[in-house]
């Protein structure tokens, strides 16, 4: 996934970016500060961290990969926001070994729960990093999208396996260790005491539409972006989205 502000990449990230940007604007108003402290757990090379820093906020990125963090620092420097992005090596399990508990206005937990041993602990740690009235942005792989993708590719046994597997995997070769339904994610968040504000389906169509069509058909990319945005809020499409985004707030 590339920078959310680049047109081609926004097919995969536009929904999350717009929701996150609006949430940051609301947090600025409620906090009475123009600059927020944002924590991006598992933020890797800065797909969201760098654009958030471009908005003027301070971003701490925690990731276990030194290579990803090196790429993050280079990317931040190229974007002119190196002074607002801090790279820290660590993971969700030992989060408070490297960052402050209760020190952040907004926490991003994107693409983390699929890989941790205990998703509930991962969510709790993300929430415990929030200040009072803070906002959590949670993004994780959706079960239904994987089932649909395998079925459309003609891998019917794998699609059925994903549908019935407790972790949502389609087989031994599946690179994603765990997938979720919207209900599972909202339950994990609600169990921490946060109020779920919105759930969005992400990449409902983008992963299914042939790239050549989007790249060559005039106006196709813009039309698909609008379709993704319109479908994202519809609960009926949550069950077939490649990813699910949950926005929650501490009262």
From TrEMBL:
Taxonomic classification: Bacteria, Bacillati, Actinomycetota, Actinomycetes, Kitasatosporales
Domain annotation Methyltransferase type: ranges: 39-136
InterPro entries noted in UniProt: Methyltransf_12, SAM-dependent_MTases_sf
Organism field: Streptomyces kronopolitis
The protein's name: Methyltransferase
Molecular function GO terms recorded: methyltransferase activity
Keyword annotations: Methyltransferase, S-adenosyl-L-methionine, Transferase
Biological processes per GO annotation: methylation
Coiled-coil zones: none
């Amino acid at each position: 996934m590339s920078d959310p502000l680049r047109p081609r990449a926004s097919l995969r990230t536009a929904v999350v970016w717009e929701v996150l940007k609006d949430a940051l604007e609301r947090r600025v108003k409620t906090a009475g500060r123009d600059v927020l402290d944002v924590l991006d757990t598992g933020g890797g090379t800065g797909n969201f961290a760098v654009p958030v820093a471009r908005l003027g906020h301070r971003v701490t990125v925690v990731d276990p990969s030194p290579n990803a963090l090196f790429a993050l620092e280079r990317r931040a420097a190229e974007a002119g926001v190196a002074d607002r992005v801090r790279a820290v090596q660590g993971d969700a399990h030992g989060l408070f070994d490297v960052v402050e508990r209760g020190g952040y206005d907004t926490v991003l937990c994107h693409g983390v729960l699929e890989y941790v041993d205990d998703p509930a602990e991962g969510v709790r740690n993300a929430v415990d990093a929030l200040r009072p009235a803070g906002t959590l942005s949670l993004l994780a792989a959706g079960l239904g999208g994987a089932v649909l993708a395998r079925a459309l590719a003609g891998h019917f046994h794998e699609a059925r396996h994903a549908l019935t597997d407790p972790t949502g995997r389609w087989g031994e070769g599946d690179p994603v260790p765990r997938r979720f339904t919207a209900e599972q994610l909202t339950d994990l968040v609600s169990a921490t005491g946060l109020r779920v504000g919105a759930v969005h389906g992400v990449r409902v169509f983008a992963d299914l539409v042939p790239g050549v069509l989007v790249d060559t058909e005039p106006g196709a990319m813009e039309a698909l972006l609008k379709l993704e945005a319109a479908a994202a809020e519809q609960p009926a499409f949550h069950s077939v989205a490649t990813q699910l985004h949950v926005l929650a707030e501490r009262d």
